Amino acid sequence: MGKEKIQKGIDNLLDLPGLPATVFETIQLLRDPDVSVKRLTQSIELDQSMTSKVLRLVNSSFYGVSGKISNIPQALVILGFNTVRNTILSVSAFEVFLRGGKVKTDGFDLNEFWKHAVGTGIIAKVLAQILRLPEPEDFFIAGLLHDIGKVVTIRLFQPEFMEILRMVEQDDLYILEAEKEILGFDHGYAGGCLAKKWSMPKKLKEAITLHHIPGSAKDDIKMTAVVHLADSLCRGLDIGHGGDILVPEIVPEALEVLEIDIGFIAGCLPEIDAEMEQSADFMTIFSI
């Protein structure tokens, strides 16, 4: 890309689709610790598609309450505001891009991409729990959305994305190397633009933007490091596919900031396998 086209692409990133008004209102309400269950229910139920997806998600085995939640007030009381907020954000992010119009994805399997996203989220949550980090559910959402920038690129730069995939295969490159070569920016940057536009928390925006360079994080370096590890582990375990042929290398900074080593990660594998098996139905929520 020439400089002019790169700048135009960056400008386009700032005009990404926004969250539906009802979704944006709900997420804002969920940030208010004093908001009532009744008020939240009214907001969520304005969007029937969101309501049905949220109920399907919260009743998946992933949350451990399979078949027990029949309405939004129950979901809010049983799971808590934070979990429901993250569920809505998950639903909305993928709905806007994957359902918001036909996209050309030759050579890029959206079902496998979704599996990689979910797998990374689950692994990030397990690592956060084992490391006794606060709000492990937030680590799940950071892992789930870490590669959302790739979907942004698919929607805005389809021909270039096809070329990126060809370069990855032909030249044996990491996808972010090919992105920088062809677009002038990578999927972390694109995802960060989306996170900013949608007013996501700073630590979530940071984890999305810097998951390949966790040592650069400032707001929550541990979250970014965990997502980095989860991404590499997910690829190494062959859970879904994010477009890369190569498995991302674990950078030493990620281990250092969490004060762990490779042996620690190996010890987490049985728990990760168990959680992946329990969460199998979550993988099917967004089958394309």
Please summarize what this structure is.
The protein has helices at 3-13, 21-30, 37-44, 48-58, 72-79, 81-98, 110-130, 136-144, 148-156, 158-171, 175-182, 187-197, 202-210, 221-236, 252-258, 262-278.
Q: How would you describe this structure to a colleague?
A:
This protein is an all-alpha fold. It folds into two domains: 18-99, no CATH class; 103-288, Hypothetical protein af1432 (Orthogonal Bundle), CATH 1.10.3210.10. It contains 16 helices and no strands. It has helices spanning 3-13, 21-30, 37-44, 48-58, 72-79, 81-98, 110-130, 136-144, 148-156, 158-171, 175-182, 187-197, 202-210, 221-236, 252-258, 262-278. The longest helix is centred in the middle third of the chain and has 21 residues, at 110-130. It is globular. The two termini are 31 Å apart. The model has no long low-confidence stretch (mean pLDDT 84).
